[in-house]
Amino acid sequence: MSKILLLHRTFWISALAVALTGVPLQPVLVWAQPGDSSSPVNSESLSEPLIFNFSNQMDGFENTGRPARQTSTGSRSPGSCLSRLIALVPGSEPLITQTQSCSEPNSLLALTVDDTPTFWFYLPPELSNSAVSAKFVLLDQNHRPIYTEQVSLNGESGIIGVQLTHSLEVNQVHRWVFQVELTGERGQGPAVEGFVERIQPDSALNRQLAAATSPQERIRAYAEHGVWHDALTEATALRPTHSSSATQTGLNSATPTDWTSLLDSVGLGAIAHFPLLDCCTSQPVSD
């Protein structure tokens, strides 16, 4: 049995226990069992599948509000998860794509050490033709909007990145919302949500980053310490972008291993092959 399959099975056993006992699931999900995260990344470990460590990012976090949706819902995005807007963040369960229904997993807290991190989203073909723009809204701890970024779209389907221009404060958990605005339906388009917290890197992570001699070593250092946004953004730099002039097959056969392994380890392997778009610009919206 593969390590990924075993970890997914462990997750489902935990979920079943919650359903039977009614005891809330505690934030101790670890789909991966990495080695000592304080040890430097070596050349041998780079040949192993990259696996994300959930334990650091879930430590002490409890969502007291409504769940944050990792995939969009509603009549505009029925059927498979791949026909829906998806946030590229760790979710409460793997993304299921073999059926014509979507389990609609919830987003988990994602960490960053960057003051202006990049957030990544999958825009499906079912939405790309009618999506004219999108907005990213950052909320404070009382769920009040404190920052909005307007994002222009160009009708392509694939994976897009939105980098904040608003600096995050250290050790503050923020909820965010990313909503696509459709032609003639402003404010009513599909949306996904999540949580982000900026942390200070500890001494072990700093040592690994200082010793890193390649992007792959930096990605693995972030993944081993549960720093999602930085691991994913560095992994995107190893992928070629898909321009509007290229043939839109929806696939990228040259997907690097670290990108695929990272998404697969958090249940998002089904969208790892979709193109990375260099399509979109964003700007802050003043109050």
Order of helices and strands: HHEEEHEEEEEHHHEHEE
Mean pLDDT: 77
Cα Rg: 18 Å
- With strands numbered from the N-terminus, the spatial order across the biggest sheet is 2-8-7-4-5-11
N-to-C span: 53 Å
Residue runs with pLDDT of under 50 for 5 or more positions? 1-44, 243-255
So what's the overall shape? globular
CATH homologous superfamily caption: Macroglobulin (MG2) domain
Largest sheet: 6 strands, mixed
CATH domain class: Mainly Beta
- How many domains? 1
Number of helices: 7
CATH topology group: Immunoglobulin-like
Would you tell me the structural class of the helices and strands?
Answer: alpha+beta
Helical content (DSSP H or I, runs of 4+): 10-25%
Determine the strand fraction and express it as a percent band.
15-25%
> How many strands appear in the DSSP assignment?
11
Overall CATH architecture: Sandwich
What features would you describe in this structure?
By secondary structure, this protein is α+β, with helices and mostly antiparallel strands. It has one domain: Sandwich (Immunoglobulin-like), CATH 2.60.40.1930. 22% of the residues lie in helices and 21% in strands. The chain contains seven helices and eleven strands. The strands form three sheets. Strands 2-8-7-4-5-11 form a six-stranded mixed sheet, with helices on one face. The protein has a three-stranded antiparallel sheet with strand order 1-3-6. Strands 9-10 form a two-stranded parallel ribbon. Helix 7 (257-264) links the parallel strand 9 (241-242) and strand 10 (276-277). Helix 5 packs antiparallel against helix 6 and helix 6 runs antiparallel to helix 7. The longest helix has 19 residues, at 3-21. It is globular and about 50 Å long. The termini are far apart. The relative contact order is 0.19.
